[in-house]
Structures are given as structure tokens and as C-alpha cells.
């Protein structure tokens, strides 16, 4: 009797330990993202959702008090770097506008080590239905008592990018 229960008990322990994912769940949910990476993604999504909504309070909430914003521009092999104060960016987000700021992302890569995270975020930016620019956001985040906050965001801005069709805005 115990010989028959041992394999069943072993499988049950693997499920409890999270080492096996039930087949139905894996098929319906797709690959599972570790909790810390999912929390970092939620912070990034909150930034872009706040921009679309023109909600300066929501956008300010995703930034660390010591956050910095930079743009690396210029030819592909060299860059001039410009800084935008976070409070100026937050204020711009909250200004009334006729065209929605819609930053769309894909293939986001997140790496986490304890309280530090880094994200590589390809994007395309639309003002209303008009494509403005595209590039990559290189983001560093830190985890504090209130969750993940953006400490540093540096973006590139180009006119030409390979944007997946499902990310492009239809007119």
C-alpha cells in the first residue's frame, strides 16, 4: 500500500512546492511570470496607463522621489543626453490635451535582483492616431515599502522602428 502512495505523495509535494504547473493552467494562462517581474511590469503599465489618462497623480506615484529622466539622442553610434525633470514631465502629462498620449510597448524584458530591477522596454508613441516616434526605454526600478518605483528612465527616440503589427495603432 505505501509503495503505491509514495509516487502519488511525491507528485503532490511537487505541486505544493510550485515545481509543477498543472497542465490546464499552463495551457490557458501561458507562461507564468515570477511575482517580482509581474510587479515591475505593473509599475511600468501604471506609468503608460496614467499617461493615456492624462493622470499626473498616477504618473507621479510610479516615480521614486530621487528619480531622473533622460533622453539619449543623436546618431546610432553616439548620443547627446538631455534631462527632463520628473516634476516637469508629470505636469506635462496632466495638461489638458485633445490628443491622447499613447505609449505602446512589446517584448519587455525585466530582470530582478532583490530590491533592484531593470527593464528594457521597446515602445512606439502616438499622439492621438498620429505616430510620433519610437525607441527603447531603459528603466531602473527600486522596491521600497510602497512597492516598485522608477529610479531612472532613459529613452531613445527615433522615427524608424520595427513595430509589431499587433502593437501598431490602426487609423
Topology readout:
Layout: H1 2-17, H2 23-29, H3 35-53, H4 56-61, E1 63-73, E2 80-84, H5 86-94, E3 101-105, E4 109-113, E5 116-127, E6 130-144, E7 147-156
Parallel strand pairs: 1-7
Antiparallel strand pairs: 1-2, 3-5, 4-5, 5-6, 6-7
Overall helicity:
25-40%
Radius of gyration: 21 Å
Please tell me the overall pLDDT.
85
Order of helix and strand elements from N to C terminus: HHHHEEHEEEEE
Strand % is 35-45%
**How many helices?**
5
Number of strands: 7
Major beta sheet, specifics?
7 strands, mixed
Secondary-structure-based class equals: alpha+beta
Distance between the termini: 67 Å
Unreliable residue runs: 4-30
**3D shape:** globular
Would you kindly provide a written description of the structure presented here, covering whatever features stand out?
The protein is an alpha+beta fold and 171 residues long. 33% of the residues lie in helices and 37% in strands. The protein contains five helices and seven strands, in the order ααααββαβββββ. Strands 1, 2, 3, 4, 5, 6 and 7 form a seven-stranded mixed beta sheet that branches. Mean pLDDT is 85; it is low at 4-30.
Summarize the structure.
The protein has 171 residues and is α+β, with helices and mostly antiparallel strands. The chain has helices spanning 2-17, 23-29, 35-53, 56-61, 86-94, and strands at residues 63-73, 80-84, 101-105, 109-113, 116-127, 130-144, 147-156.
Tags for this model:
171 residues, alpha+beta, 7 strands
Amino acid at each position: 500500500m505505501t509503495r503505491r502512495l509514495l509516487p502519488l505523495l511525491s507528485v503532490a509535494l511537487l505541486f505544493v512546492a510550485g515545481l509543477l504547473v498543472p497542465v490546464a493552467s499552463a495551457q490557458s494562462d501561458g507562461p507564468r511570470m515570477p511575482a517580482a517581474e509581474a510587479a515591475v511590469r505593473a509599475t511600468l503599465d501604471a506609468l503608460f496607463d496614467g499617461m493615456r489618462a492624462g493622470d499626473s497623480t498616477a504618473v507621479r506615484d510610479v516615480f521614486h522621489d530621487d528619480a531622473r529622466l533622460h533622453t539619449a539622442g543623436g546618431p546610432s553610434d553616439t548620443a547627446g543626453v538631455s534631462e527632463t525633470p520628473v516634476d516637469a514631465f508629470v505636469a506635462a502629462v496632466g495638461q489638458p490635451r485633445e490628443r491622447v498620449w499613447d505609449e505602446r510597448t512589446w517584448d519587455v524584458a525585466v530582470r530582478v535582483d532583490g530590491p533592484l530591477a531593470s527593464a528594457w522596454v521597446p515602445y512606439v508613441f502616438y499622439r492621438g492616431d498620429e505616430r510620433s516616434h519610437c525607441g527603447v526605454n531603459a528603466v531602473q526600478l527600486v522596491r521600497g515599502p510602497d512597492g516598485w518605483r522608477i529610479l531612472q528612465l532613459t529613452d531613445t527616440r527615433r522615427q524608424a522602428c520595427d513595430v509589431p503589427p499587433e502593437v501598431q495603432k490602426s487609423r
